[in-house]
Amino acid sequence: MKKIDRYITMNFIKSIVLSLFGFINIFILSQLFKVIRYVTEGRFGGVDAIYYIISLLPDIIIKVMPLAVLLGGLMTINKMASSLEIIALKTSGISFKRIITFPILIAFIISCGVYYMNDKIYPESIKKSREIKRGGYEDMELPESRKKAFLRGKDNYVYYAESINRITSTAVNIEILELDSEFEKLTKIITAEKGIYHRENKLWKFENVTVNNLEKKSSYTLPVMQDVRYDDEPERFLAPSVNPKLLTIKEMRSTLGAIKQTGGNSREILMELGDRTSFSFASFVVSFLGLSLGSRYVRGASAVSVAMSVGLGYSYYIVQASMEAISMGGVIHPFIGAWIPNILFLILGIYAMYKAEY
């Protein structure tokens, strides 16, 4: 790395960190009033409030990182343009694309870091924040029954019931999918016409059962079946048991396969999977825009560039929300809808880079 690359890269990183802290503070302040209200109402104590705010940080960082990179790129290049450093570099024969090569590389590395945070840290932080909130809230009343109920069990198995009722503790047309220890390969499919949950011994009793062992390639029927593994209460089927936000990307892919096996609705998980992967690389995509807009320095134009940059940054979120709504409505595939904002803004960013003034 040459001295000029180190100079640009360090300024770029400093600008991103500055922007990131600014956006994080704004988001924390927006949550602080809610947290203070929870504390004064006795929903949780002061220590829980601190842990709750800390648990929100991964989600906040993931959400604001594209804006931080966008503004960081704009501030870095705009400062160089205002001191005529960009002109000097261009005059010496260095192209604008070469000038921003390392900042774009840094933006890609940041996106990889966001991807890791989105996959490993974000689900755990969401679980923690919900545990803290749940500790202070009264339990929500569950519905009496549900159709097409899906539940991942405590071990490597998945339930699907055409209908389940927590009052009568019964389920109709049940499928149980057993998977291997990696939760990737389907090993056994169990179907039953009816299931009765015995609350005294906390076990399901299944009637008219067919067991298909995929590993041994065998099949047999049973009039009645009970197994100590299948002890999940009917209430768990009625709660939002499989929340995609609480799963890692690997778990979402495995769960997606299980849902398809049972014929359940996989659109929500597909949308979350697409958002996790596509939004992680939003920082890389918008870096082209920030760096290109920052090069457009003329007297009095800095404020216009900043306003345009912020406007484009929020436009990304608007397009993303619109695509999510369209995808959830079934107009387009959720995974494709999640990537459309990245594709559109990458094209716009590359165009802006080629149209940069210097």
From TrEMBL:
The protein's superkingdom reads Bacteria
Specify whether Transmembrane helix is a keyword of the entry: yes
InterPro entries under this entry?
LptG/LptF_permease (IPR005495)
> Can you tell me where the transmembrane regions are?
12-29, 49-78, 99-117, 301-319, 331-354
- Keyword entries, A-Z: Cell membrane, Membrane, Transmembrane, Transmembrane helix
Task: Tell me where it resides.
Answer: Cell membrane
Membrane topology, as annotated, equals:
Multi-pass membrane protein
Q: Which GO terms describe its cellular component?
A: ATP-binding cassette (ABC) transporter complex
Q: Name one Pfam family in it.
A: LptF_LptG
Q: Which GO terms describe its biological process?
A: lipopolysaccharide transport
Q: Report what the protein is called.
A: Permease YjgP/YjgQ family protein
